């Protein structure tokens, strides 16, 4: 390939990652540029002290001197020197700060080399024009140029603000379904669309299925119009093109529904496969979608797809982690055949109580995890104590009493939510404050832990143990009902009594009243 014979400019790359400096140096020297490198802002100023530079690319977060500080120093030394900032963690605050310091472009890592070269060409061209303007223009012309640059900078700030908001919004969502709801709402807010809808449509789903829309309620006649085969054909076409598609109802042959003036369709890809299409529509003829709207929605869909992939990965890791913890619980129960399936039964009892008490689905999900893991701390108790057939000594009992603390620490180290950890730690607390490990009382004890305590004690006394046989029904009920207000929360005991009378709890523990206990 014929190389450009014109002498190219000198570029300074500033980054504390040697690999990035090496790659940039190799690539841009291959393009004919002279390339200098520095590992922080202080080294960069030393280079600039004896070498003329035409453009500077800098990271923000670096030791000794940050990219923002460097940009400020360069702006004071030579306000015609273009500075391009690169960062993997953009924020509105840093964006505004860099723009104040004379930064002319802002690239989000990872940045590909082609993108860097395009930015370089643009800023160098603008620098040449700026220098010509400084040398040749009159004061009035210079003022006009500055005003125009200021307007462009303000527009750039607004654009970066919107992009930053899009990124921030999707990082806050914790469920896959919430991503699509957020996507359609944000699409309407950013582009001022009258309606946005996300359709799932792929090889397995032959016809578009709307799984999220905003606003949710629109006139029935208009809803029917949007669900016509013409819209399905447009969605199908966008899927085949695998690129944003803009349609406007400006001619006879338009395929848009009658009351839709402008329609923007953006496919979503997950792991290189098209998953669905975002459909944004404007019903009024006052305005249509512009090029910025296309860019915003394409960026938005890309970030939503990335969030879906991350959540899917997180959910898979989370499920695997729970499976590992449940395996630990099974290992504990395998050491003591008399407590086999104890954690599962306690969880079922606790969920039945929680349901009757009106707990939310989120609370029941938390209780489902905490119930199955409540005795995981026993993995730290030696068998000679855990499986002792006789009465424990005071010293041995104190060791046993550590299992809620051990269990909470295990869960905490593995990064589970704080509420599960609190319930596991508090499941042996008593309503009167005489429990362990912290001596909490009444409402100091988390409500879900009070529920779990009732379920745990009931299954323990209704099951065979290494040191005793299952208690008789009368004794079980005497302990459970008599513990209201002392060992247990009275409200939970009331619900327990109701469920016991209905036979719900007997079925869970497979306890048959008035039948002899099985031998160990």
Topology, number of strands: 10
How does the overall form come out from the CA principal axes?
Answer: elongated
Q: What fraction strand?
A: 5-15%
* Low-confidence residue ranges: 511-520
Named CATH topology of the largest domain = Hypothetical protein af1432
Number of domains: 3
Question: How large is the count of helical segments?
Answer: 20
N-to-C span: 87 Å
Oligomer: single chain
Largest pleated sheet: 5 strands, parallel
Radius of gyration: 33 Å
Sequence of strands across the biggest β-sheet: 2-1-3-4-5
Helix content: 40-55%
What does this structure look like?
The protein has 520 residues and is of the alpha/beta class. Helix content is 54%, strand content 12%. It has three domains: 10-170, Response regulator (Rossmann fold, 3-Layer(aba) Sandwich), CATH 3.40.50.2300; 176-309, 2-Layer Sandwich (Beta-Lactamase); 336-509, Hypothetical protein af1432. The chain is built from 20 helices and ten strands. Strands 2-1-3-4-5 form a five-stranded parallel beta sheet, with helices on both faces. Strands 7-6-10-9-8 form a five-stranded antiparallel beta sheet, with helices on both faces. Helix 3 links the parallel strand 3 and strand 4 (83-87). The longest helix is centred in the middle third of the chain and has 45 residues, at 291-335. The radius of gyration is 33 Å and the shape is elongated. The model is unreliable at 511-520 (pLDDT under 50).
């Amino acid at each position: 390939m014929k190389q450009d014979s014109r002498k190219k400019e000198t570029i300074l790359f500033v980054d504390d990652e040697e690999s990035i400096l090496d790659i940039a140096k190799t690539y841009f020297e291959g393009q004919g540029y002279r390339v200098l490198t520095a590992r922080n802002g202080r080294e960069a100023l030393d280079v600039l002290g004896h070498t003329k530079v035409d453009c500077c690319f800098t990271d923000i977060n670096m030791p000794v001197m940050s990219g923002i500080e460097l940009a400020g120093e360069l702006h004071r030394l030579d306000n015609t020197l273009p500075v391009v900032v690169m960062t993997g963690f953009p924020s509105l605050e840093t964006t505004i700060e860099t723009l104040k310091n004379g930064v002319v472009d802002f690239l989000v890592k990872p940045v590909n080399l082609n993108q860097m070269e395009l930015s370089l060409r643009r800023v160098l061209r603008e620098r040449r024009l700026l220098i010509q303007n400084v040398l040749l223009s009159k004061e009035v012309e210079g003022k006009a140029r500055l005003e125009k640059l200021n307007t462009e900078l303000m527009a750039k700030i607004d654009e970066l603000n919107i992009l930053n908001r899009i990124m921030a919004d999707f990082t806050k969502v914790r469920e896959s379904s919430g991503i699509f709801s957020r996507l359609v709402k944000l699409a309407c807010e950013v582009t001022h669309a009258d309606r946005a809808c996300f359709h799932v449509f792929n090889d397995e789903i032959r016809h578009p299925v709307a799984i999220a829309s905003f606003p949710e309620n629109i006139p029935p006649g208009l809803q029917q119009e949007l669900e016509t085969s013409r819209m399905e054909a447009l969605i199908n076409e966008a899927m085949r093109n695998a690129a944003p598609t803009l349609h406007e109802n400006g001619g006879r042959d338009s395929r848009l529904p009658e009351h839709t003036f402008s329609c923007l369709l953006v496919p979503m890809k997950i792991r290189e496969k098209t998953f669905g299409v975002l459909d944004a529509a404007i019903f009024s003829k006052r305005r249509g979608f512009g090029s910025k709207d296309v860019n915003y929605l394409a960026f938005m869909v890309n970030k939503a797809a990335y969030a879906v992939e991350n959540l899917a990965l997180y959910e898979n890791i989370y499920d695997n982690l729970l499976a590992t913890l449940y395996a630990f619980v099974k290992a504990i129960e395998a050491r003591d055949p008399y407590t086999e399936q104890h954690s599962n039964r306690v969880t079922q009892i606790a969920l039945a109580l929680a349901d009757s008490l009106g707990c939310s689905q989120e609370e029941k999900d938390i209780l489902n995890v905490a119930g199955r893991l409540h005795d995981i701390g026993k993995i730290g108790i030696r068998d000679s104590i855990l499986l002792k057939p006789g009465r424990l000594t005071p010293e041995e009992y104190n060791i046993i009493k550590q299992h809620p603390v051990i269990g909470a620490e295990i869960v905490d180290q593995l990064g589970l939510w704080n509420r599960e950890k609190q319930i596991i730690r508090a499941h042996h607390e008593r309503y009167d404050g005489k429990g362990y490990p912290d001596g909490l009382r009444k409402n100091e004890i988390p409500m879900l832990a009070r529920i779990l305590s009732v379920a745990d004690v009931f299954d323990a006394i209704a099951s065979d143990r290494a040191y005793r046989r299952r208690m008789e029904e009368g004794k079980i009920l005497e302990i459970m009902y008599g513990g209201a207000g002392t060992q247990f929360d009275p409200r939970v005991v009331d619900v327990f009594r109701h469920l016991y009378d209905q036979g719900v709890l007997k079925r869970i523990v497979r306890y048959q009243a008035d039948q002899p206990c099985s031998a160990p």
